[in-house]
Write a structure and sequence with these properties.
Protein name: DUF3593 domain-containing protein
Radius of gyration: 23 Å
Pfam families: DUF3593 (PF12159)
Keywords: Membrane, Transmembrane, Transmembrane helix
Strand content: under 5%
Organism: Nostoc minutum NIES-26
Number of domains: 1
Helix content: over 70%
Number of strands: 0
InterPro entries: DUF3593
Order of helices and strands: HHH
Length: 118
């Protein structure tokens, strides 16, 4: 059976692929992208914190409250950036949609050519 440490290390590769694809996408909100990259910071902090907890306290990271909470701050900040990024994108999208509605634009209806070609 595969150890949890090996599984954790292997799980980074699909996540790095995910980051590569969303980084190239022109549709990902920039703030959300920073949040997804911040998750890597969380991982980078958690690994040495877990090693320190094991060596210094003889316990897993989850059982050393102050250290675990300190590491989790980075995950919380990453999640906040992701939520704020998508919130900002939704607000912008609604504003564009509202503006188009005010101008009489409806992308679901066929558009009439109103130009006078006579």
């Amino acid at each position: 059976m595969i150890s949890k440490e090996t599984l954790f290390a292997l799980s980074l590769f699909p996540y790095l692929g995910f980051l590569w694809f969303i980084g190239r996408s022109q549709q990902m909100p920039r703030l959300a992208l920073y949040g997804f990259y911040g998750t890597l910071v969380f991982v980078a902090i958690t690994i040495p914190a877990g090693i320190y907890a094991q060596l210094h306290y003889g316990k897993s990271l989850a059982n050393v409250d102050w250290l675990h909470g300190s590491a989790e701050v980075f995950l919380t900040l990453s999640n906040i950036l992701i939520v704020l990024g998508f919130r900002q994108a939704v607000i912008q999208r609604k504003a564009i949609s509202h503006q188009q509605t005010l101008q009489g634009y409806n992308p679901s209806l066929p558009q009439q050519d109103l130009s006078n070609k006579n």
